[in-house]
Amino acid sequence: MGLKRKKAILPALALALALTSCVQAPPAASGETGPAGETTGPIPVTTPTAPAQEGSSMADSLFSVNYNASRSMNPLEGTNVYNDKLFGLLYEGLFALSPTLEAENVLCESYTVTEGALYHIELKSGVLFHDGTALTAADVTATLRAAMRSSKYGQRLSDIESVAASGDMAVDIRLKRANALLPALLDIPILKADELKADHPVGTGPYRFDGDRLSAFASHRDYRPESLRTVYLREVTDDALAEAFSERVIDLLDYDPNAPGGLNIHMVHERRYYDTTQLVYLGFNTASGIGSDRIARQALSRLVDREALAGEIYGGAARPSPFILSPALGLFEESDTAGYAFSREEFYRLAVPAGLEDTDEDGYLEHNGSALTLTILVNSDSPVREEAAERVASDMAGVGVRAEVVSLPYDKYIAALGRGDFDLYLGEVKLRADLDLTALFSGPLNYGKLTDERYGLLMDAYLASDPEGRRDAARELGAFVAEEAALVPVLYKQRAVLTHMGVVAGAQPSQSGDFRGILTWRFDLSR
């Protein structure tokens, strides 16, 4: 199975019995991607339902995580999904994302913004790299410039015009356009200026690399004597993850509950869900067919049952979102979005002015007197998205709208989007942490051929808004997109961090990292 075992294995009968999952429920109905927003990541977990066996334990008093020794441990270059999760232990950014997707100061002590486009960032004093040298503005400047050139972070930092040191302990960042949410993009690991290409560059994080383990960095500002001293590194292949976790070879697993495949976890465990910027949405072809009719789009958008999709199809690991920005940000009230929720009554109210009527009394609606069959395009590589598309088609059929789901493998799906061979498509994209939607409105992901410049203007206004005006800017953007109904937001996905029952307390993962605040976690490794 590819496991380097460190623990005793239960007999087969015990493994068959110790199966119950204890979970932390996701927040109320509730991963960077390739150019079409397709996602990759750890395999999801499905848990059998037999009762747990009392009195059995495979604890070994070690806390271990998955690691790939053959892949890069340089955070500016490494793309291995498991190593990437470890970077949060070894390195720190100027900022990190909170569980609600807000920027938190890390290496940044304070900052000021001039006209939304010039950031002056003061660095925390006394921060040390693992080799004992002090963090300086030269390190931050060199790292951010390298990140701007990298394939991993280049797109995210594309709005930065220049980065320059301002003395020994401050950095100036000038933007091409105003963005009051830049800090959310700056969770990029900071390296020493002379180690940008090193295989194992030193960082300022709470742990330092030490061969087959990570050792607590006692000079870290948050270190406490009771902090976990050692994180052990184990190499486990994808097909052995379930066994490795069940046998406590590894003690933490990050996964997408709705990714293809599944893992059978033979161990009582806890799940901590966190919000992501992974948007699932429906897009109309506005260049031809029924998608060119705004009122018809509005009517059909009222048939998207987000609550059912998030709860039944995505298993509750998602936040239904009538507005295009994530509800995790807390920028909307229910009253703001109520008019755009699933409603057959609203569909019927809009159907007649949209020209949707059963003119030949065959039980199906025509559009302006012509036969209508909608084509809903979806990527067959994602079974959960296929199921979601089928649910949308079924809800449409319930009011007499014929809809055919066309499920294609990724390459053919992208080609069909490019040709406009669809009326609707179900898409998924991981947005930047500032939720910039420009790529969907006018960039490479504008498959629906949107042309209204107001999309870009309202997007820019939201990004430039200060905290006092952000709620109003978000509502204006959300309402405009909902009224146009060319892009119909469905939900924002959540991921989960899985640990053994009772082993970890105080963990609050976020999209920036599974190990957020680990020096303050409480461990009971005897469980």
Quickly describe the structure.
23% of the residues lie in helices and 22% in strands. Helix 5 (294-301) packs antiparallel against helix 8 and helix 12 (454-464) runs antiparallel to helix 13 (467-484).
- Percent strand equals 15-25%
Task: Write the CATH fold name of the domain at 277-494.
Answer: Dipeptide-binding Protein, domain 3
Q: What radius of gyration results from the CA coordinates?
A: 25 Å
Strands, total number: 23
Q: Which CATH first-tier class of the domain at 277-494 would you pick?
A: Alpha Beta
Shape: globular
> What is the assigned CATH homologous superfamily of the domain at 277-494?
Dipeptide-binding Protein, Domain 3
Label the CATH architecture of the domain at 277-494. Answer: Roll
Q: Report helical residue fraction.
A: 10-25%
* Discrete helix count: 13
Give the biggest sheet: 7 strands, mixed
Uncertain residue ranges: 1-57
Report on the structure:
- This protein has helices at about 10-15, 80-90, 135-150, 240-245, 295-300, 305-315, 335, 345-350, 385-395, 410-420, 440, 455-465, 465-485; strands spanning about 45, 65, 95, 105, 110-115, 120-125, 160-165, 170-175, 205-210, 215, 230-235, 250-255, 265, 270-285, 320, 355, 365, 375-380, 400-410, 425-430, 485-500, 505, 520-525.
- The protein is of the alpha+beta class.
- Among the domains are: about 70-210, D-Maltodextrin-Binding Protein, domain 2, CATH 3.40.190.10; about 275-495, Dipeptide-binding Protein, Domain 3 (Dipeptide-binding Protein, domain 3, Roll).
- Strands 12, 14, 15, 18, 19, 20 and 21 form a 7-stranded mixed β-sheet that branches. Strands 2-11-10-9 form a 4-stranded mixed β-sheet, with helices on one face.
- A hairpin with a 5-residue loop joins strand 3 (about 95) and strand 4 (about 105).
- Helix 5 runs antiparallel to helix 8.
- The longest helix is centred in the last third of the chain and has 18 residues, at about 465-485.
